Amino acid sequence: MMDNDYGLDISEIIRTINSADVMTFRFLIISQRLLIDMRTNDLDGPLLTLVPRATSVEERFRSVKQLRPRFKTPENIISVWWPRYARGLSTSGVWEAILHRIVDLGFPEVAERAAEVLKEVCTLEHAEVRNAISGKGYHTIWEYRG
Questions:
Q1: Do the beta carbons of residue 46 and residue 39 sit within 8 Å?
Q2: Low-confidence ranges of the chain (pLDDT < 50)
Q3: For the chain, how big is the Rg over CA atoms in Å?
Q4: Cβ neighbours, 10 Å, residue 5
Q5: pLDDT at 57
Q6: How far apart are the first and last CA of the chain?
Q7: Dihedral of CA 129/135/141/145: which sign?
């Protein structure tokens, strides 16, 4: 599969990863979002998980609060639009920056589990591409006339 550049500023995305407390990655063809919450305390390390698309900003803030009840509601949540295939997170250096930040925070075990999250994103994306090709859940805008 080809992966276009889309004018992404990878260095800016990496700066965001290095500074933001809470961020989501929105993907091209899957509705789930990758939620990354770098906040930590004595009981909780950083969180990487897939979450459903929120219908509003308020809903996203509520969902983060529900997922992380021992933390205050975040002041902001940075949303990163990722119009490339999910594997591009690895090839661009973005995933490495996420893992480095987690390790730098002192949670190498979370960084190890993060591979499962990336694999899940890639699996969902691959399934959606397969569905589009086979027509499962999709309809053409034209009619075949053989």
A1: yes
A2: 1-4
A3: 17
A4: 9
A5: 95
A6: 28
A7: positive
Q: Is residue 146 domain-resident?
A: no
Beta-sheet pairing, 33-37 with 47-51: antiparallel
> What total number of domains does the chain contain?
1
Closest to 125 measured CA to CA, from 78, 63, 82: 82
Residue 6 has what pLDDT?
A: 65
pLDDT of residue 143: 65
Residues 38-70 pLDDT 10s: 999 999 999 999 999 999 999 999 999 999 999
**Residue 69 CB contacts under 8 Å (≥ 6 apart), including other chains:** none
- What is the C-alpha to C-alpha distance for residues 4 and 68, in angstroms, rounded to an integer? 35
Q: Which residues pair with 81 in a beta bridge?
A: 26
Give the domain extent around 97. Answer: 10-133
